[in-house]
Amino acid sequence: MAFIKDEKNFLDIHLGTYELSFNKKYRLITLLNDFTLGLWFLIGSVFFLFEPLKTAGAILFIVGSAQLLARPVIKLIHAFQFSNKRKNF
Known about the structure:
The chain is of the alpha+beta class. About 55% of the residues lie in helices and about 15% in strands. Keywords: Membrane, Transmembrane, Transmembrane helix. This is YrhK-like protein. It comes from Virgibacillus subterraneus.
């Protein structure tokens, strides 16, 4: 059974006897975003070689472009950390 353990600076994903560890959870999000971004542009480029698939290729380019805009947003969210510093009286 897979489960995820979220520590302060690490994200551990346990899959049976295996464990994937990332030093920051936003790094995993960034890597997944970059991987899918490249995938959309690669598939879209291949689709542009075939006339009936050009519209689907253009849609994949639009999705990839939106993900390019998401990259700095993810970095900004990662840069800012919010915590409750209020003391109990």
